[in-house]
Specification:
The protein has about 350 residues and is an alpha/beta fold. The chain is built from twelve helices and twelve strands.
């Protein structure tokens, strides 16, 4: 890093006070954008040495090009799909994320959706409030012990969900993940069966999705995939919208082909009032809130701020999303943090 008496961090959106105070304690100047809109952020980019980025703004190539002093874009979340990583790399800008900081939190939300659907909690709550106590004899809930969990994606969150379902709920686990290392497959093979996506779809009683959104995963669970699933199967998505064909999923739910869906993410957020999942039978929807506990958002924001400070101190930050940028001349003297 170049020698400088002071550093400036741009916040397109407010961050948690704990993270902000961490920056202030190191005499970092904070630029707060009045709105998380490109037209508000763009004039501030020229003064920014780093950006701590939440989800409300896409850090586009146009914005990055304005950052003549820009060294780093530090995401508070685990993903970086709202950053033009290629543009950042071209300009020698490090992109990092709080990967792993939300693992347990998102896994807990996923488990909550699985149990909510399997035990039919919304229907039982509604009928009890309406005076239909005899709904208890309709035997709406189902057992999960002995059924099959199908995990599409077996990274940190997928593994955490699968372990919990296997250990606490007695579920058999199938997983598909083309990018999983041979070492991880061998390590987990005692309790997980790794197979193809089609095999997972055909055998899963509960399908849980844990893959990033990309051109490759767009529409991964589409109409044909849904048609391969067991009648009455449950579908959970706490990863990213756009991976599931929302219209096809809603049709399968309304037709009774699938038994329920727990959806935390949508192809367009906030979802339009016309999104078919909002009125689909047996769908439980939440507002992309799986990682948004108070504890988790503070943890992610503090980590994002700390990575910026590490870089200012000449240390290699954690979770660099574009490691090829480290070949840039400006980063060759970065030191590993002990």
């Amino acid at each position: 890093m170049p020698e400088r008496s002071s550093w400036t961090v741009l916040l397109p959106e407010p961050i948690e006070e704990e993270a902000k105070q961490l920056l202030i304690s190191r005499k970092v100047e904070i630029l707060q954008s009045p709105e998380a809109k490109p037209e508000s952020v763009a004039p501030l980019m020229e003064r920014a040495d780093a950006v701590v980025l939440r989800t409300g703004l896409r850090m586009s190539a146009e914005l990055i090009e304005r950052g003549r002093r820009l060294s780093m874009i530090s995401r508070t979340g685990a993903g970086f799909d709202n950053v033009d990583v290629e543009a950042a790399t071209r300009h020698g800008v490090i992109v990092s994320s709080s990967l792993g900081a939300n693992t347990h939190t998102v896994a807990e939300h996923t488990l909550a959706l699985i149990l909510t659907l399997a035990k039919q909690l919304p229907a039982l709550d509604r009928e009890t409030r309406n005076g239909n106590f005899r709904v208890r004899y309709d035997y709406l809930p189902r057992d999960l012990r002995g059924t099959t969990l199908g995990a599409v994606g077996f990274g940190r969150i997928g593994q955490e969900v699968a372990r919990s379902c296997a250990a606490a709920l007695g579920m058999r686990v199938l997983a598909c993940d083309d990018y999983l290392s041979k070492a991880v497959r061998e390590r987990e093979s005692g309790w997980v069966t790794f197979c193809s996506l089609n095999e997972v779809l055909a055998q899963a009683d509960v399908l849980t999705i844990h893959v990033p959104f990309s051109a490759e995963t767009r529409g991964l669970v589409g109409r044909d995939a849904i048609a391969r699933m067991k009648k009455g199967a449950l579908v959970i998505n706490t990863s990213r919208g756009g991976i599931i064909d929302e219209e096809a999923l809603a049709e399968a739910l309304n037709a009774g082909q699938l038994g329920g869906a727990g959806i935390d993410v949508f192809s367009k957020e906030p979802p339009l009032a016309t999104n078919p999942l909002l009125k689909a039978a047996s769908a439980v929807v939440t507002p992309h809130a799986a990682a948004l506990t108070r504890e988790c958002v503070v943890r992610m924001a503090v980590l994002a701020a700390q990575r910026v400070l590490d870089l200012f101190d000449g240390f290699l930050p954690e979770n660099v999303a574009n490691p090829q940028v480290l070949n840039h001349e400006r980063w060759r003297k970065l030191k590993p943090k002990q």
